[in-house]
Specification:
alpha/beta, single chain, binds zinc ion, 2 domains, binds acetamide, five-stranded mixed sheet
Amino acid sequence: MAVANIVPKPNVCVVTDAAVFANLYNLTEQTDPAMPKNGAYEMNLTATESTIKAADEQGLFYAKQTMRQLQAVHGSNVPCLVIKDAPAYPYRGIMVDSVRHMQSVQELKKIIDAAAMFKFNVFHWHLSDDQGFRFESEVFPELIKESSVRPSSDFGKVHDNTPYGGYYTKEQMKEIVDFCHERFITVIPEFDLPGHMSAVLHAKPELSCKGEPVAIKTTAGIFPDILCAGKQEVFDFLFKLFDEVCEVFPDQYIHIGGDEAPKKYWKTCPHCQKRKAELGFTDEEQLQGYMTCRIADYLKAKGRNVICWNETLASDVLPKDLVIQNWMDKKKKCPSFANKGGRLIYSDYYHYYTDYPYDMTPVAKTYNANPVIKGQKAKENTLGVEAPIWTEHVRDFARLCYMTWPRFAAVSETGWTKPQNKNYNDFKERMIALLPVLSDMGIEAAQPKEWDPNPFTRLFGTTSFFAGTVNKEMILNFLKGNND
Ligand code: ACM
Ligand code: ZN
């Protein structure tokens, strides 16, 4: 255990007297408007009195999370110390996929409360995908009636013939939003489009190019059933849906997906082709860009901004102020986007996807990832970091906790602690001391012996995880120890 055991590591922490314990009964909170309003805080713990100080409630909240950890680990033996702390990045997120498998409101609250203790400030909530629609829409009740339950589940080697589904009521979603806000966490709902829309199209096939029935999906994958980019009714639907989404989710960003959208049907659809010709476009990617712009403009008029996955950069038609979440930048579009002033969220899948086994993504690999990517000139164009948990193979809360912790904590340290203050072995020691704290919160993390498997175990575990789905590129990337 470190002398002052805190994750993420404070940027400046001087233990003034390790042998004398701080008086935390005489604790004063101060606000100092001259301090930065980015979550920065200061803490001065002495044997006679203790002070926490920040510009605002958010900064004080982070001071309290530091105190929460110190007291949980050191009990009444917290050493005298001085901390001057501020985050490395303004955006520090976790993403939970509540489509492939859902979490109860109580489970989500446990995840969010733990995330808050590690100073995350974004909860990205994946609520719509091919395998289900989880947002209670009163404007389009058919999305709940017909698209929230899939007939069976066939993820990987597990076949389950029982229907699976559910949705979050507006009241539940608002409860999550309030719970997050109390912890200075903003909520970003994701409605992935134009791809990953099979569940929506199941209820509303008229929004596809062909207008034919679309099955809600029961397997993982990338599916050609996407929203038509030519039909006006698609935009009418999206605008009404986003009106409703904005009523439930009041924060700045709405995530509109944009990943993995095969353009197979757009190429022959008369509506899409008419739109493409009218706009003078030369390829279908521009049509996706056009859709993104229309939705971004619509949301902009409501005071919001959009975030999209990096495939959106395949189009040269892009909304202003677009924020790109970089998960798999095959075409290397992200560095030039950033160098032209675009803002990136770093979620590289080889480092940050916590649904991959520890054999493939050891904690050290997650910890050491650099959110300033190769070819990117200015650190400032990285808005921050976000670690997702996709849940095709994560069927219950115990598994979710095991996969995400301590990798979420590793990401929290990259998001908060400046690179020169980071050190993996030091992180490991502090994190081990925090495992009982997580456990008391109902979160059973992976045990330290599983964090960084040896190379043989890694290769074996990775190939068996991907058995049947592995491709050459994945193996090459793995062998290269990829990637930055
Ligand atoms: C993604 O993992 N398809 C964003
Ligand atoms: Zn079409």
